[in-house]
Amino acid sequence: MSHRFAGRVRTALLSAAALLAPLSAASAAEPPLRICASSVEAPYSIAKAQGFENKIAVVLAKAMGREAQFVWSDKPAIYLVRDFLDKNACDLVFGVDSEDERVLATKPYFRTGYVFVTPADKPEIGSSWEDAAKPDYKTFAVRFSSPGELIVKQAGKYEDNLSYNLSLVNFEDKRNRYTQVPADKLVNEVVNGDADVAIAFASDVARYVKASSKPLRMTMIRDDFKRSDGLKIPLHFDQAIGVRKDDAGLLKELNAAIDKAKPEIDAVLNDEGIPTLQPNG
Question: Kind of pairing, strands 140-141 and 197-201?
Answer without folding.
Answer: parallel
